[in-house]
Amino acid sequence: MTVPLRPRSRGAGSAFGCEGWGPSGFTLVEVLVALAVVAITLGAGLKAAGTMTDSAERLAGVTAAHWCADNALTDLRLTRQFPGGDSEFACRQLGRDYQGRLQSLPTPNPNFRRVEAIVRDDQDRVLATITTVIGRY
Question: Is the pLDDT of residue 8 over 70?
Fold first, then answer.
């Protein structure tokens, strides 16, 4: 058998003189726990957003470096030069400056050369490497 709750009177054990069916509102501990959960959630969200921003920036840098390397190799093909040594090139893509190096390596067939285009950023980190084979024209 269930016993119905009776409303409290103003003076019967109510610390703040509130009327109602029982204690209402949240305790200080409940509020602090809720604030801690919100703070942890917001911190994790900010960290994830920062990671996504860094990843997007890195992707833009690597993509631009690939464009630089591809442009240097295409230029080498269009000028119909048979590569014979290493050379440096500079490239500007998306408002950033990149430094590149074309390395020419021999192959078993003397009519072909293996050419690597290595692109670095301003902090000397390798961002992209593209390798191709160019034949004698």
Answer: no
